[in-house]
């Protein structure tokens, strides 16, 4: 696997799809090892897809190609693949083609692009938990607020996002880190559900922009977090964490 992708494998708390889409901006100067007549698929889309797979846990070229082959339509569109005008499907290169291309990439140029990407933002996340005698949601014991503060060092912009969740965990049953892990697990289930609905039931076939993609948590490749929930061992099987609504402040 290229060393640039191995850098991404060591990223703390990645958010695979948004991070990969962000990385694509830094890949414009990457030399294309394809012959001009063989450039059927955009180089940036292939490398961004490989990066998303590594950020999502792939640790071998075989796992990378499997991830790309199984990615749902809206993910491929967000990464830069296009719709075939005749079949109306989004096609991806053969696994052998992906492996060969990644093996022929300019390693220094990829390392430089990934290093630049990893230094583009600063992010702080906080979790707050509140216990109520009664929440108007079956089985809910706590309400959670996740606040994400992010500064884009290239665009000089600051964004604040607030996410709200409810959980059936009683107070003190999980630390902030454990709650964060369960929120990430919830979004993984959501992505799998979208994949099944898109590929099996052909729902949402017209999604064609990154803006239409859900925004899972946590968001960035370079991040620091602070959690305010109390620490204790769980006393029961971990339940799902359900997000009722999301609000964003520009």
What does this entry look like structurally?
It is a single chain. 37% of the residues lie in helices and 18% in strands. The protein contains 8 helices and 5 strands. Strands 4-1-2-3-5 form a 5-stranded mixed beta sheet, covered by helices on one side. The model is unreliable at 203-236 (pLDDT under 50). By secondary structure, the chain is α+β, with helices and mostly antiparallel strands. It has helices at 3-9, 16-24, 43-55, 61-70, 73-79, 95-104, 107-118, 176-200, and strands at residues 121-131, 142-152, 157-167, 224-227, 242-249. The protein folds into 2 domains: 3-118; 122-249, no CATH class. The longest helix is centred in the last third of the chain and has 25 residues, at 176-200. The protein starts with a helix and ends with a strand. Helix 1 packs parallel to helix 7. It is elongated and about 65 Å long.
- Helix and strand run: HHHHHHHEEEHEE
Given the structure, what is the number of helices?
Answer: 8
Strand content: 15-25%
**Shape designation:** elongated
Number of discrete domains: 2
| Strand order, sheet with most strands | 4-1-2-3-5
Task: Specify the helix fraction band.
Answer: 25-40%
Describe the biggest sheet? 5 strands, mixed
- Note poorly predicted spans: 203-236
Q: Return the average pLDDT rounded to an integer.
A: 76
Question: Class by helix and strand content?
Answer: alpha+beta
Number of strands: 5
Distance between termini?
A: 38 Å
Indicate the radius of gyration in whole angstroms: 20 Å
In short:
This protein is of the alpha+beta class and 250 residues long. The protein has helices at 3-9, 16-24, 43-55, 61-70, 73-79, 95-104, 107-118, 176-200, and strands at 121-131, 142-152, 157-167, 224-227, 242-249.
